[in-house]
Design a protein that fits this description.
The chain is of the alpha/beta class and 342 residues long. It has 3 domains: 169 residues, Rossmann fold; 53 residues, Roll (SH3 type barrels); 79 residues, Elongation Factor Tu (Ef-tu), domain 3 (Beta Barrel), CATH 2.40.30. Helix content is 25%, strand content 31%. The strands form 4 sheets. Strands 12-15-14-13-16-17 form a 6-stranded antiparallel barrel. The chain has a 5-stranded parallel sheet with strand order 3-2-1-4-7, sandwiched between helices. Strands 9-8-11-10 form a 4-stranded mixed sheet, with no helix packed on it. The longest helix is centred in the first third of the chain and has 20 residues. The relative contact order is 0.13.
């Protein structure tokens, strides 16, 4: 099989390539050039490909990444939502444009260093959590279509990160101890710096900070400086800790209040991608409302491309713009973008 490996220069993607090579596949490396901040990743990926003695190509998608990922990221914050650019990038760029390039170069599959598993169940491609719960990235991959899943390989899905580093060290890979990248790739300082550098000045508007009753407590210099659940940085003191409870994009208002106001009994999401055929009846699910969320039990009801989940126990800091991902055990059922809070 001819396989393209998305190589970022890190240990994960390099070991993914190593394993496929040792399994006898014909492989070549592809590295995304997404912005001017990742020149070091391109250098490290090329070095890893040289060590493995495989062809290596750089795919320059800076213009598409800026238009399809960075600009919507900025706009979401200006409108009072907290976006998840990595999930958008996976569907549109890595398993969209990069997969197209891999196929153009003759690849049958695109392999990545993501920690997740894919398999066929009842004639459909299914996405499952990784064996290492601390590294599982199925949450970020819930937007992949059946065609994208069919063309994807995740060689690390059944592995623990600790054993992976030992494997890389034993193979003589120089990046075996390279630190993991946990931040958004195009942010080198802070997300507010990125927003204020890209947004036109007139798009960043001041507004009011109010309590739950609508009483004005202070003013702010832009909604992009806030996210739901935030405790510090709103500049309002009180007898108890105050949190950002909601962001009103239309009125440019930040609503703050005590922690109890963060709890929500339900959530709705739209623009959903389903990895199963949506059932007609309500379905018991485990719902994750952000990446580091352990998941909450609840009942999901489908409404076309939208879904509503009523939690068994109210959840804190449910945030518009983030992903709602539904699971049955370790299997991803589908997910969409949070747009309404219960």
């Amino acid at each position: 099989m001819n396989i393209a490996v998305a190589m970022s220069g890190g240990v994960d993607s390099t070991v993914a390539a190593l394993r496929l090579q040792r399994a006898g596949h014909s492989i070549f490396g592809l590295t995304l050039k997404l912005h001017d901040e990742n020149d070091h990743a391109e250098r490290d990926a090329r070095r890893a490909a040289d060590l493995l003695n495989i062809p290596h190509h750089v795919v320059d998608l800076r213009a598409a990444f800026h238009d399809e990922i960075i600009r919507p990221f900025v706009q979401a914050y200006l409108e009072g939502r907290t976006p998840n650019p990595c999930a958008h990038c996976n569907r549109k760029i890595k398993f969209g444009r990069l997969l197209d390039e891999a196929r153009r170069l003759g690849a049958d599959k695109l392999a990545t260093g993501h920690y997740a598993r894919v398999e066929q169940i009842d004639g459909r491609w299914a996405l499952r959590k990784a064996a290492d719960p601390s590294k599982d990235q199925s949450y970020f991959l819930c937007g992949l279509t059946q065609d994208q899943l069919a063309a994807s390989l995740f060689p690390l899905g059944g592995s623990l990160k600790a054993t992976l580093r030992e494997e890389a060290k034993a193979a003589g890979l120089v990046n075996w101890d390279k630190a993991d990248s946990e931040d958004i790739c195009f942010i080198s300082t802070s997300y507010t710096d990125v927003i204020e550098a890209i947004a036109p000045p007139e798009a960043i508007q001041p507004g009011e900070i109010v309590d739950e009753a609508g009483r004005v407590l202070a003013r702010h210099e832009g909604l992009h400086r806030f996210t739901i659940g935030q405790r510090k940085g709103h500049g309002v003191a009180g007898p108890q800790r105050l949190y950002v409870l909601a962001l009103d994009g239309a009125q440019r208002r930040v609503v703050i209040g005590p922690r109890a106001g963060l709890s929500r009994p339900s959530v709705s999401a739209s623009d959903c991608n389903w990895m199963i055929t949506p059932p007609q009846d309500a379905l018991r699910v485990t719902a994750r409302i952000r990446y580091r969320h352990e998941g909450a039990l609840g009942v999901a009801r489908w409404r076309g491309e939208a879904v509503e989940v009523i939690f068994d126990t109210p959840q804190e800091a449910v945030t518009p713009g983030q992903l709602l991902v539904l699971y049955d055990g370790d299997r991803v059922l589908g997910g969409g973008w949070i747009d309404a809070l219960g």
